[in-house]
Amino acid sequence: MGKLLIVGTVAFDEIETPFGKTDKILGGAATFIGLAASQFEVDSAIVSIVGDDLPEEYLDLLRNKNIDLSGVEIVKGGKTFYWKGKYHNDLNSRDTLATELNTLADFNPVVPDNFKDADIVMLGNLHPNTQMSVIEQMKATPKLIVLDTMNFWMDNALEELEQVIKHIDVITINDAEARQLTDEYSLVKAAEEIQKMGPKYVVIKKGEHGALLFHNEKVFFAPALPLEEVFDPTGAGDTFAGGFSGYLAATDTISFANLKNAVIHGSNLASFCVERFGTRRMQDLKREEVNQRLHQFKTLTQFDIELK
Amino acid sequence: MGKLLIVGTVAFDEIETPFGKTDKILGGAATFIGLAASQFEVDSAIVSIVGDDLPEEYLDLLRNKNIDLSGVEIVKGGKTFYWKGKYHNDLNSRDTLATELNTLADFNPVVPDNFKDADIVMLGNLHPNTQMSVIEQMKATPKLIVLDTMNFWMDNALEELEQVIKHIDVITINDAEARQLTDEYSLVKAAEEIQKMGPKYVVIKKGEHGALLFHNEKVFFAPALPLEEVFDPTGAGDTFAGGFSGYLAATDTISFANLKNAVIHGSNLASFCVERFGTRRMQDLKREEVNQRLHQFKTLTQFDIELK
């Protein structure tokens, strides 16, 4: 059972989709990563910051999944990071209606002592300096450092982002961000360029069009499961990252073959996440459901052509 | 060795992409379908119409691939169908700059006697009435009728299109067209609706995002091979259709498992088509190259997770 260290937001989300809207509900990258990773036999911890306005039941929900929250700072009288967004009809794009950093503005992550030797470090989307600070606190070199980021940091903290990218093993970004980071339209070329920046592995997420894993000359592709209904895409990317890093922490083998499996597990879990608002679907997700859908993934992609 | 009957345009294309432009070159749906199908052991024929302005060498190119052209009417003094288009920078969209129907305006397809018992009929994109006329000329019920179409006919001849769709086994359309035809955004639902209209199998082409095959409750997905360079997408969809129908004609087994293989072969051949202008890459494509890239497809998609 490997140790997984998760860094990212625990937050309030308020979401509107064509199918309905929510009040403030539990959200945040670390939340989704943690819930997804809890599907595997891992010893995981979240490093984050929240205000004391965050209902205790939200924290309990994570604790009940055996996630160590000793690294979550709770600021007395502070307010928790809040994001409000509205999805367009095709669910592929969204408008951010509000972002309140609140306590996140002064976040100095502190890695708990007993996770300074984590096997896998999953750096959720945050300021690159915050991500870097976590790497610097590790006592032993982790087997794998995975970083998720987004275009916001390419626009506003590119130098800092390039700095942290030098120190990681896997980057997960979406296709538009890969193009922005490299000025290459071809994702094959973009992945080559990104590997030169540091990471040995590049995961390019294409939303409903699946995800690509690049490593040297090798490429692997996992489709998104075609669904009758996509209800709310919020957290799908983080759930992917959680499944990916959780599986690797549980299996403890760093190889292209095993990273392929991790991509499949990440895609599989993300396919559940989008079926309900926020964390709803992930909270009570059963192992049997997960396993059953893995069969669907296999049927979806496996073929039997005799090769010459 | 099965018989494959191909109906579609043999045409002049004039193409501009971000990488260059052409004069009038050989194009047309039947051309691309025929070239792709010629990669398999098939006995194929094209039914089409051209003017005598089409260089004899273009027809020889097809004849040299053992494609029977006795069903290609050559109109004396007539002009061949001509299309001119310009691709945008991302190559995912294009503007049609000119369309001259010419001889195609009076096209009455005549199926050669020796192909009225074809095993597979591949109806390339044409007016639905033209496609229907070919079906009506068949003496024996083909093992499989495959129809390709596009949004133009949904806009301008929807009733006729719905009529021909009742009589076919497989439809190949792109994602936007599947949505237009059914008013369903979810491709899973769209494919369900289309199956109710007639075809037992629905292939939804997503360009660089791959292709989906639907049949009852079953779904299969083939990615597009991630390429360093996509040079000219013209003919990729037709090449897919040619690989798909050619493989089925050669293997003579109509089952979901074999249609999955056909989708992979179609995707594989389409990945070559886009590497050069027009038919350039397909003209001299070697079996070894095709087989080698099939290995890449396998590596790209196959994984080994133990399922419970």
Automatic annotation (TrEMBL), chains A, B:
Source organism, top-level taxon: Bacteria
Organism field: Pricia antarctica
GO molecular function terms noted in the UniProt entry: kinase activity
The entry's keywords: Kinase, Transferase
GO CC aspect terms: cytosol
InterPro entries per record: Carboh/pur_kinase_PfkB_CS (IPR002173), PfkB_dom (IPR011611), Ribokinase-like (IPR029056)
Domain Carbohydrate kinase PfkB intervals: 21-281
Protein name per the record: Sugar or nucleoside kinase, ribokinase family
